[in-house]
Amino acid sequence: MTIEAIQEEIVEELNFMDNTHDKNDYVLDLGKELVPMEEEHKTDATFIHGCQSKAWIHSQPNEEGNMHFTAYSDSLYSKGMIALIVRIFEGQSAENILKADLFFMDKVGMSTFVSQKRTGGMAAMIDKIKLDAAKALTYKA
Amino acid sequence: LIDMNMNSTIAPSIAEHRADFPILKREVNGIPLVYLDNGASSQKPQVVIDAIEHYYVFENTNIHRGVHTLSQEATQKYEDAREKVRAFLNAEHSEEIILTKGTTDSINLVAASYGKKFLNAGDRVVISAMEHHSNIVPWQLICDDRGAELKVIPMTDSGELDVEAYKALLSPNTKMVAVVHVSNSLGTINPVKEMIAAAHQQNIPVLIDGAQAVPHMAVDVRDLDADFYAFSAHKMFGPTGVGVLYGKKELLNAMPPYQGGGDMIKTVSFEGSTWNDLPHKFEAGTPNIAGGIALGTAIDYINSIGYDAMHAHETELLEYGTAQLLKIEGLILYGTAKNKAGVMSFLIEGLHPYDTAMLLDRKGIAVRTGHHCTQPVMDRFGIDGTIRASLAFYNNKADIDQLIEAIHYAKERLL
Description:
The complex is a heterodimer.
Chain A (H helix, E strand, L loop, with lengths): L2 H14 L3 H14 L21 E7 L5 E7 L2 H14 L4 H6 L4 H4 L8 H25 L1
Antiparallel strand pairs in A: 1-2
Helix pairs in contact in A: 1-3, 2-3, 3-6
Chain B lengths: L26 E2 L2 E2 L1 E2 L10 H14 L9 H21 L7 E4 L2 H16 L5 E5 L8 H10 L2 E5 L9 H7 L4 E7 L11 H9 L5 E4 L11 H4 L3 E5 L10 E5 L1 H6 L10 E5 L2 E4 L13 H17 L1 H20 L4 E4 L8 E6 L4 H10 L2 E2 L1 E3 L4 H7 L4 E5 L6 H18 L1
Parallel strand pairs in B: 3-15, 5-6, 5-7, 7-8, 8-9
Antiparallel strand pairs in B: 1-2, 4-10, 9-10, 11-12, 13-14, 14-17, 16-17
Helix pairs in contact in B: 1-9, 2-9, 3-4, 10-13, 11-13
């Protein structure tokens, strides 16, 4: 599935819910499903700066140049936000990740049910993933 | 209570005063608001809101300048408010009351002005481990500038200052002690009178950050013998953007101006300027006039209820709330000092404070999460932050019960 198609899927799922509690519950439930991260990957290099809670995202490109992610946060809600992003980017090529236009946040009206600080944290997570993708490309080259 | 003058009217009970605060009638997420973020900012009674509105509807103009009626009336009301603050603190002179933007502004004023004049290389400023960032950073800035050192009074596991260690820090080169009266993140009431006396034995002036004290207890600056006392109106039922710096006249007179501008000058020429007398020397520019007047109204309001009644009610509520919280499995309370005011700071094992607060908000409950501008306190306990429920006299046991119920809901949802 393309990054755009996955985003459309998320938009449909979230916009199906008509109240903010349900939307936040959806994010919390995603947090419970986030695949645990290896303890050794919680390093300064994988730490997300700008998050309200502590969060780490570890990126690993495979031989074909597709990116794989594991992540952790001490906040269940942040885990849910990471899970959303990982769902969009998991297995995508570094090139596609770099040029991806992340429209789902606007389309679901994220600022109406997520605090400004937390949407800022989500932006920091996306920046980190894009930076990792850029590094993977540089390394590949 | 009986009015002894005449008529035998019965004063409203503490519980009835809750109705004075219109915002407490609103709902959040369809549930009546439970406001437990008073440490951040208290709510405002209708009389304070009315005072602000009345000023802009009937009295608005600039003060201290015009001879027209409005200017004279507004000036009188603003200066009346200053006099109310003087009486509120039992200060000797009204010119010892500087009206500022708030506690932070008051402390910055002292740090910058007193520091510029009296701090030299090798001197020492003593603060405590439980200071709000507002009583740390201004001192760091001036100490860096003057080559002075900042020393920190340590704190025990219960969140109490080590007074013996404090006394050992006082030295001939200590030029200032700046300590919080009531900790905003732990609720500890510090023994400031004893600490001031110890500093005075070595002629060291003391600044007290009273931001979290004035909403809960009467403060008598002469009884404390405080050299400086700072607080904000908005935490004691007054408006934001206005606060107080009390300073002993001789100290304030010895200090250079902090900011330059209108009102603080006597004469201005390009060759040089001369300074106005106290308190105006430290009040550059047009002040928050409506805010100052409304601060006076907030003081009237507190006086009409009385700190004794407020304190008795809050003490009972704090004891009840603490006992109820401690029944929750996995709850850790931070700040277990014997003398506390208004604050219950806690974490629940396995629950992130931000996630918890989000779910509490869903249940109409306003609490604060994070480091509460006291990162060194959090470091001392090895945590990133807490959930803080902070009380005002208008809270009641039903508020606490709703908080407890919501915490159980959050636990169920998050664990």
